[in-house]
Amino acid sequence: MFVAVSIAYQSIIFLLPFLLWPSRRNLQAIVSLPIFLITHVIGTAIFEVQAKEYFGVTQKSIDEYTLILLVSCIVVLPTYLAGFYFKSDAVYFIRKLALSFWPRLSGLLTGKMPVVLSLITAALFTYAYIRIGFAPLLTEKPEVARFFADEYEEAYRPYASFFRLALLLSQISIFILAVRILNRIRILDLLLILVLVVLLALSARRALIFSALILVILSYFCFRKQRFFWPVVIAYSLFVGIGSSIFTLIELLLSPGGNPGNFFLILVSGLPDVRDSLWFIHSWLSGRWPATDGLSVIGGLLPEQFPYNPSIISKLVIGSKANAATGGFRFDIPTLGFMAFSWPGVVVFSAIYGYFSGVLLQTYKSILSRVENLSDFLIWTFIFKQIFGLAYFIFNMQIDFLINLILIFFIFLSTRAKYTDKGFS
What we know:
Elements: H1 2-20, H2 27-30, H3 33-55, H4 59-85, H5 89-106, H6 113-132, H7 142-145, H8 153-156, H9 160-183, H10 187-202, H11 206-223, H12 229-254, H13 263-268, H14 273-286, H15 295-298, H16 310-318, H17 333-368, H18 374-393, H19 399-413
């Protein structure tokens, strides 16, 4: 029952956006499909067994979490479809807001801003690694060190702001540099991308290393090499599968008597969101934790001493065994709703998320389906990546995402528009 309901819920979140707009241009949905396949189609059954055997999760807790997901499914599906199909002022508002920023972001394709931004990012990374005293990739436990958990946490905390700011700026810098290179190859831009990718690789954050470049590569094949687009998507999916489990595989191969063992268990090991949610819900119910009355929603904006900050709430509920990242576990929307307001939170959070996501997808489709050149498509893709992030942010506010938005707005304001939008009004 749990496996079927979990896959059904995640199908609405990951698969439905592509089914509603089955187009090469729907990159927001396409880049999520491998995660859906690995984590939820392949991983759910494995994680249910793992949660029982290794984390003490009871069948009663699994049944409760299954019911949470089922209620969310019943609410999210109709509200998502309503947001997508019914005309709304929200679509007009978001479209107008996005269009107002387009000329300024277009201006980043020329000028010195990307170079300055990249140099600042490289300096922040270098300073952070020196002061922390290590680079996660070069430690004995890169899978733990990349989240600065356990023994790596104390050295990281005083310099966390520098490192996290570097991570945020690197995504913006790499994306803009890659777009510039597609228009005109510059040796300096190539060198800066190489430096930033190396510095990101030292962080051992697999998802961040190539996420910006993946969007650029897929956009290029979407527009200019269309017959190779789906083969490239397949290659990308394989890359995600290998990348998500690479540390586990290396650790097994290098350890004495190491054996790769179960291929599927290794494949899903790097994306344990389902297992973490099961473990958390079990601990939450077992400990009889009361609803946070919404404090867990804003906890990520407050200092780490705040008990409902996501950086510590996992450890408070689960205990020291959590081994959670410094940012806490990644929870789905119904879990966030249950944590904040119990069962009413599951219903309300799911309804808001479903409708807002449907509206965003309709807005995304209305603009991206009419773009006529690659540069504009890349810029719109970047804008909507930030806007789609808001659909999760409003339920789990994180200071990193807020700073990311502030940085983007600052870059907009400091850039003189070089182009005008003649295609939309």
